[in-house]
């Protein structure tokens, strides 16, 4: 929407007018009719608290939530809603759409959370049709200089409006039975159906478009079905009986954003949201400015009643495994099909794309995902409940393991049963998988490792630089196992752009590929560099062992078996948490990261320029670069590049609470 700022300003001022208009005959409302109090009981008037004089309209859409126009909200004034039946409620919280523009009135919608549930049946939100005759109900003036119905107890005015045009986020209407006038902002556009009278709404009045109050004028409504995700999420967050979260149960760290599952089963993501990867219906960044974390950070809408089992934050996309076994992914799909929805559309960057509108990934008949790897390089992989492995998205270098280099997931007929499982060898299934920049590695059910895709730096660990998986007959039994140390099996695996690291059953770690940390050079691209030739990382004196490992693009971290943390690699933003910004090699005397008195680490993840850890008290701490909010500190400042910024000084990321 692009309206003159003068019109917007005049509309708001007039909506809040308190002048007395002489009563006129009630036979018409600029060609419309008066509606009796029992016609539309869910359509109320928004008033300053303690007053009965309306400023805007508001409509009940949930037991404790109403909808109005965002420009009707003045945060300096306490508001109430009075309904025609005599019920009223105070507004506890008014949440404007996060992308609302005071200049253009774009995204002009707000959800009002009420302090009580009026004994009124809420309206539902429906999808309008072109050229449909709809009904507008409001409380404003009946004409220029005309009578106001604001203070007439229990009465609305009603007009018939033809839907003139439908936009993605707006509805433009033309009066055919009456006119919409000043003071009507926030009122609803309803379906004109005697059987559904007062139960279905399409939009809320946003702008008069420079028109007046006459029949035939064009007016604009905010289209509510386009904002269903924002509305549902806001209601669920602030007006539902869902348990209030008290802790974090799991954490995933992406290159520039993070996602966490809270103990109420809901997901929050923060950081760089440029690609809709936060799943909040916009491309805003959360965590770099004041007022974007805690309760102000919305939940990701995963669908009606759905909870998350786990979540992964990837490269410009995110995925969640749900409690019903479904897998949902959002963010950018690009032309590779990263989201696996058989199109190239981005999801989560616009209103109305999340929640029930977001399809689950079709993985095939009778199967569900039980583990999904962090999407990387526009590729996503999931282990299914039958142990098979499926990968989709970018297939450069054959990293989908399908014997060709065609991308899967961006066009119809490439997912579901049409997407083959990766051939891991006769009778073999997958226990763990990690997606590198151009390759994939998996731990199989026999605790051995296979890797395929790009092998420029020897990251496949096969003693050469030949790619695997982009030609027929390179997978399955023809794909060699990675030669590990004698007698050792793999417990965990992590990959980066060109390197692979494995945690063995003796809690030692070895890496191969480009610039492996134990040597700083390539390992695995030549014969006799694997197997017992693999050096273990020296994480400290007296045989210090690792409990888990994670590899980012530029850094690596190992959680030791005592719960302490060591990180090394690039450090220009303080992402190693060592109190300085110099490159740090892995040495025997590398200090542990100070996360606070008595604190230990349950899991850790490394992004491009930041690091986050889930601690033993089920809180999250992040440090490093925060340009787009990845650290979640509500500022742009780096954390961890000065000694005074770590330990007890480093605050936990606020994911709930004020």
Model description:
The protein is mainly β. It is built from two helices and 35 strands. Strands 9-10-11-14-13-12 form a six-stranded antiparallel barrel. Strands 2-3-4-7-6-5 form a six-stranded antiparallel β-barrel. The longest helix has 12 residues, at 228-239. The chain is elongated and about 90 Å long.
As residue ranges, the low-confidence spans are 1-31
**Content of β-strand:** 25-35%
Tally of separate helices: 2
Distance between the termini: 33 Å
Report the helical percentage. under 10%
Alpha-beta classification: mainly beta
Using the CA coordinates, give the radius of gyration: 29 Å
Major sheet, described briefly? 6 strands, antiparallel, barrel
Shape: elongated
> Can you count the beta strands?
35
Strand order, biggest sheet? 9-10-11-14-13-12
Q: Mean of residue pLDDT?
A: 87
């Amino acid at each position: 929407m692009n309206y003159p700022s003068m019109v917007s300003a005049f509309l708001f001022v007039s909506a809040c007018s308190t002048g007395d208009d002489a009563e006129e005959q009630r036979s018409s409302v600029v060609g419309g009719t008066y509606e009796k109090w029992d016609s539309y009981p869910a359509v109320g008037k928004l008033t300053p608290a303690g007053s009965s004089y309306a400023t805007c309209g508001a409509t009940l859409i949930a037991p404790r939530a109403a909808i109005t126009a965002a420009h009707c909200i003045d945060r300096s004034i306490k508001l109430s809603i009075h309904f025609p039946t005599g019920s009223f409620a105070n507004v506890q919280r008014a949440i404007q759409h996060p992308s609302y523009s005071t200049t253009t009135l774009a995204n002009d919608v707000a959800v009002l959370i009420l302090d009580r549930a009026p004994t009124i049946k809420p309206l539902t939100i429906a999808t309008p049709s072109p050229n449909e005759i709809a009904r507008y109900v409001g409380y404003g003036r009946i004409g220029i200089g005309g009578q106001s119905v604001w203070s007439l107890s229990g009465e609305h005015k009603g007009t018939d409006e033809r839907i003139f045009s439908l936009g993605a986020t707006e509805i433009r209407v033309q009066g055919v039975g009456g006119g919409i006038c000043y003071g009507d902002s926030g009122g609803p556009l309803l379906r004109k159906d005697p059987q559904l009278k007062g139960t279905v709404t399409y939009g809320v009045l946003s702008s008069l478009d420079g028109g007046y109050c006459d029949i035939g004028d064009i007016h604009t409504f905010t289209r509510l079905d386009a904002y269903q995700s924002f509305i549902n999420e806001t209601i669920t967050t602030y007006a539902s009986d869902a348990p209030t979260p008290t802790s974090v149960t799991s954490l995933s760290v992406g290159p520039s954003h993070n996602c966490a599952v809270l103990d109420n089963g809901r997901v929050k993501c923060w950081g760089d949201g440029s690609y809709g990867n936060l799943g909040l219906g916009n491309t805003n960044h959360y965590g770099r400015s004041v007022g974007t974390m805690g309760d102000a950070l919305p939940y990701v809408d995963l669908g009606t009643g759905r909870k998350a089992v786990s979540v992964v934050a990837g490269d410009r996309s995110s995925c969640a495994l749900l409690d019903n076994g479904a897998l949902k992914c959002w963010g950018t799909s690009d032309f590779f099909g990263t989201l696996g929805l058989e199109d190239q559309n981005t999801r989560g960057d616009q209103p109305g794309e999340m929640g029930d509108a977001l399809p689950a990934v079709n993985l095939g008949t009778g199967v569900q995902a039980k583990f999904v790897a962090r999407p990387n390089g526009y590729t996503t992989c999931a282990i299914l409940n039958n142990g098979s492995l499926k990968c989709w998205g970018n297939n450069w270098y054959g990293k989908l393991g399908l014997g060709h280099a065609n991308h899967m997931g961006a066009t119809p007929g490439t997912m579901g049963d049409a997407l083959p499982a990766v051939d891991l060898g006769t009778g073999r299934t997958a226990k763990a998988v990690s997606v590198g920049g151009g390759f994939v590695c998996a731990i199989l059910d026999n605790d051995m490792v296979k890797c395929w895709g790009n092998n420029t730096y020897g990251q496949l660990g096969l003693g050469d630089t030949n790619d695997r998986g982009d030609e027929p007959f390179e997978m399955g039994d023809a794909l060699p196992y990675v030669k590990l140390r004698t007698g050792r099996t793999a417990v965990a695996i992590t990959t980066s752009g060109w390197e692979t690291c494995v945690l063995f059953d003796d809690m030692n770690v070895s890496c191969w590929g480009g610039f492996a940390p134990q040597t700083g050079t390539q390992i695995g691209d030549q014969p006799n560099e694997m197997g017992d030739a693999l050096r273990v990382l020296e994480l400290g004196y007296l045989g210090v062992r690792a409990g888990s490992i994670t590899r980012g693009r530029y850094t690596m971290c190992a959680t030791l078996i005592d719960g302490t943390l060591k990180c090394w690699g690039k450090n220009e933003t303080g992402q190693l948490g060592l109190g300085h910004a110099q490159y740090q090699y892995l040495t025997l005397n590398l200090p542990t990261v100070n996360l606070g008195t008595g604190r230990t680490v349950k899991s850790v993840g490394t992004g491009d320029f930041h690091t986050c850890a889930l601690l033993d008290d089920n809180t999250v701490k992040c440090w490093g670069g925060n340009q787009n909010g990845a650290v979640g500190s509500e500022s742009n400042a780096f954390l961890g590049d000065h000694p005074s910024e770590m330990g007890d000084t480093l605050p936990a990321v606020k994911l709930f609470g004020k």
